[in-house]
Amino acid sequence: MNPGGHQTSASEPAPTRVRLRLTVNGEPREVLVPVHRSLLEVLREDLDLVGTKHGCELGECGTCTVLVDGAPVLSCLMLPVEVEGRAVTTVEGLAEGGRLHPLQQAFAELGAAQCGYCTPGVLLTAKALLDTTPAPSRQDVKEALAGNLCRCTGYTKILDAVELAALRMGGRR
Amino acid sequence: MSADRTSPGPGPAGPVSRAPAGKPDFAVIGRPLPKIDAWGKVTGETRYADDLVLPRMAYGRLLRSPHPHARIVRIDTAAARALPGVYAVLTGQDLPRVKFGILPVSQDEEALCTEKVRMVGDAVAAVAAVDEETADRACRLIDVEYEPLPALMSIEQSLAHPEVRIHEYGDGPNVHKNVSLQFGDVEAAFAQADLVREDVFFYEGNTHLPMEQHAAVAQWGFDGRLTLWSSTQTPHYVHRLLAKILDVPAAHVRVVAAPVGGGFGGKLDPFAHEIAACALSRLTGRPVKIALTREEVFYVHRGRHPVLMWLKTGFTRDGRITGSHIRTWLDGGAYGSYGVASTFYTGVINPVTYQIPVYKFEGARIFTNKPPCGPKRGHGTPQPRFALEVQIDKAAEQLGLDPGDMRRRILCEPFTKTANHLTVTTIGLGECIDRVVEASGWRAKWAGWRRSRAPGRGARRRGIGIACSAYMTGAGTAIYWNSMPHSGVVLRADRSGGVTVLCGATDIGQGSDSILAYLPAEVLGIEPKDVHVHPADTALTPVDLGSYSSRVTLMCGMAAIQAARRLRGVMATAVGRKLEVEPGRLVFRDRKVGVPDDWDRAVPFAQAVELAEAMHGVLAFPGSYAPPRRAGKYKGGGVGPSPCYSYSACVVELTVDEETGEVALHDVWVAHDIGRALNPLLVEGQVEGSIYMGIGEALMEGQVFRKGLHKQPSMLDYKSPTTLETPEIHTILVETDDPEGPFGAKEAGQGPLLPVIPAIANAIYDAVGVRVDELPIGPEKILEGLELARRGKPARVGPARIPLFTFKEPLVVESAFGQPADAIALRPFSDPEDAS
Questions:
Q1: Which of B:142-201 have CB within 8 Å of A?
Q2: Average pLDDT taken over every residue of chain B
Q3: Rounded to the nearest 10 degrees, what angle do helices B680-699 and B756-768 cross at?
Q4: Would an 8 Å CB–CB cutoff place B706 in contact with chain A?
Q5: A154, B691: Cβ pair inside 8 Å?
Q6: CATH 1.10.150.120 residue spans of chain A
Q7: DSSP 3-state assignment of B125?
Q8: Which chain B residues are within 8 Å of A117, Cβ to Cβ?
Q9: Residue ranges per domain, chain B?
Q10: Residues B92-116 pLDDT 10s
């Protein structure tokens, strides 16, 4: 939580910093961060990728979900040493070449984002599902998203949107 | 007429005509369009309050009380101040000594407590530092000496210990509010009844649990002007109160509501972190951000009141209600908040659903040493609705009536007044009942009161239940007394052909920004994309009171329509001159203005703007809305009136496992009288979200305290439904075209929650014959009921008694039941053509 790059205090031992190299949304990035800083904080505060949200910072709500090497993880529970050299995808990396990912398109069209706060985490969890299971059943979608809390939608339109995106991406059951 | 949209559309569809015969088709209204902010939300571009970062910004934290009730003896901040990286430390002594509260009658809060703390989580000090870690460390270095006081953790404890006073004001020791209203002679009504039921219910409190934790960024400039960006549902009230609390001219304060990541009523009060961020910014000369942790969100709360209820109702043999008497005791928590309004709402809305010729309501709100309760989705009405609908179910059984048919026969008459002088306009509830009965297959599935319970597999029993409800579309009176508009819009037309709408409304996910684009687009014949909406900024936007009481679509919608019509009138005159036709013959559609049978000569909208601007000058038009003034002429009559009421009917089908007590929901059908679905996609979303939240309240969500501590201030321990607990939801929209609403629309954001909870309770009874009169209905309560049944006792689980408590002498007012509604009078600020 140190966007200004201030000096650490004299009385406290300086937190050990590590040089972290990783790929974020396809771009190589390198940052110097305290060793105990979570991936969530690195993304939001060191890399200015504030599209990733937080709901508890305790690994309970799924809001901060990002993909690491394609798999959904809770970024609030991940430390820099765990992501060294790995590829991270955030909501900012979903659209490619100015074109929305079909999940984003479907979420917008079907009203699957109300307040929108859980949406980035839900989108990434859903992307990981569709990457491995192109034609999921509704129950598959429910199980994949069971760790992403949403208080607005009753999940109905989220499930509908994931199904619509799967259909448009050519998934056939 | 009605629109059935049980299946989701595949995306933006073409114009769908939903207009009654003889009325024009709509171009925008009724289309399942994406929300105008949908693209920002699916790409991560939307900036919520905690996403704002300003140069030189400091990070703040609050130190909160670990005691539920204690006197503050001493606060020593020296060590915290000395910590490198700390910019400022603040206690209540550094702030103006004013108490505040959202309601003028309950000014009982301090941002940072000075004399005593009244709950775990009360803030006592604030720190601004170079980063959050340093601020946290500094908080731990603040030495606070407390003298613990006895903690009162329940209604019973607070009433039993008048010698321990949580506050020094109110209607008695630890009694915040005591109200009693009587409309007609209820005792006489009970004497005429064939069946009189008395039942006691308890509704445990629960919390909003928005996914976004509250956050605020304050910047007190060296020019002496303050800007606060905050996740608030009511920038206007925060603006007013900040000026008072910080003792600065309101003219020098600007409050901007960032897009809110979920509200549900939890972001409707001014909060300590907002005030502390402002004060710390003044002290440090830096912008200051304070973002709450999830645990803190549980403490700031303002959620659903726990309510104990006693309900006495007389019924005739055919199920008509002869009279109703309800007593409610609310566990208010440590502060007033919206509690006086909440207290009234536990009584005043019940009569707008069924015919209740005489009515008596007694309510009391009790202070306890718990986080303060306030408005949560449905504000004070889900509790009595649960009680009333379960009691009706019990009466239907005793009378041998189908519970759906019984309700269908006793509905209020449209355009009449209730016993307590509320005016109801359109009522689509009859159609709602018909539609859910039909869609759910009720007639085939409900086996009658002599349940020949279809044996499930093993110990699993299937059940089906029904309930109904009503809710207000906007409070008829503001929180502070005034005669000004409740919502205002300034609409400006640009030479580009675009239109800009400025309005104080706050989008908390319900889609108010989109409504502010759709309605002017409809009036002006342009696309929603042509409308730029700038919301919720007290320096730029006319006041809208806030996102509460389901008021926003109706009130900002009416204001937006008025402003757009005023622009259209000027443009029509200018185009009429150009085309040499009567302005009244011109239509606005497809981004053109012209005469339908001479459409080739129609003027493009952008050119029409230029003609109008050349004729009129700058094209900026205000729109104002205030509700019709029809509060009952008695003290307390200001709570309950609304321009119109929405109605909902719900059927739930579920399975109860008799071995484990677990409930599995299969399907929920809700038919909702929306007046008109301005965008059916958004209305469905509101209905689905309401149903989901009702399910959580019915089956699992509850605030539990042990030894003065919140037992589960985390998202893991506080259970809420996931995708796996949420059943298939079937939404049916019923349209009644209400004369009070924008293009006939009523509310959708709160009402559909209400019938879900009693429908679940009634379905559980249908499944296993156990009445659980206490929420949430956890498995242990069902098992307790089954055990009672096995021992040959009544299978009823719930509160057995009510507190010893003396309500006020009732204010006795003549019942207005059945009187015709006053004519739809011209509203304040309305134009003559608005009536058309």
A1: none
A2: 95
A3: 50
A4: no
A5: yes
A6: 102-168
A7: strand
A8: 48, 210-212, 261-262, 509
A9: 23-46+484-625, 49-149+213-260+267-300, 307-476+634-813
A10: 999 999 999 999 999 999 999 999 9
Alpha-carbon gap: B239 to the closest alpha carbon of chain A (Å): 23
For residue A60, the chain B residues in CB contact (below 8 A) are 294, 714-716
* Alpha-carbon gap, residue B797 to B625, rounded angstroms: 47
User: Superfamily assignment of B49-149+213-260+267-300 in CATH?
Assistant: Aldehyde oxidase/xanthine dehydrogenase, a/b hammerhead (3.90.1170.50)
**Yes or no, beta carbons of B133 and A92 under 8 Å apart:** no
| Residue B688 forms contact with A (CB below 8 Å) | yes
Contact B692 A155 (CB under 8 A): yes
* CA separation for the pair B173, B210 (Å, rounded): 34
B38 inside 8 A of chain A by CB: yes
Task: Give the integer Cα–Cα distance in Å for B780 and B786.
Answer: 10
Quote the pLDDT of residue B127. Answer: 98
B414-450 pLDDT, tens per residue? 999 999 999 999 999 999 999 999 999 999 999 899 7
Mean pLDDT for A86-114 is: 97
The first and second tokens of residue B82, run together, are 């000395």
Tokens of B50: 């905690």
Helices B552-579 & B512-524 angle (0-180, nearest 10): 20
Residue B438, pLDDT score: 98
ipTM attached to this prediction: 0.95
| Segments in chain B below pLDDT 70 | 1-24, 451-458, 824-825, 833-836
Residues 6+ apart with CB under 8 A from B644: B424, B425, B426, B473, B554, B675, B738, B740, B741, B746
DSSP state of A96: B
Same fold, B23-46+484-625 and B307-476+634-813: yes
Chain A's closest residue to B511, CA to CA, is: A114
Q: How many contacts (CB atoms, under 8 Å) link A and B?
A: 208
pLDDT confidence band for A48 (50 / 70 / 90): very high
- φ and ψ at residue B158, rounded to 5 degrees: -65, -35
> What would the DSSP string read from start to end of B170-201?
SSSTTEEEEEEEEES-HHHHHHT-SEEEEEEE
Each residue of B233-250: pLDDT tens digit?
999 999 999 999 999 999
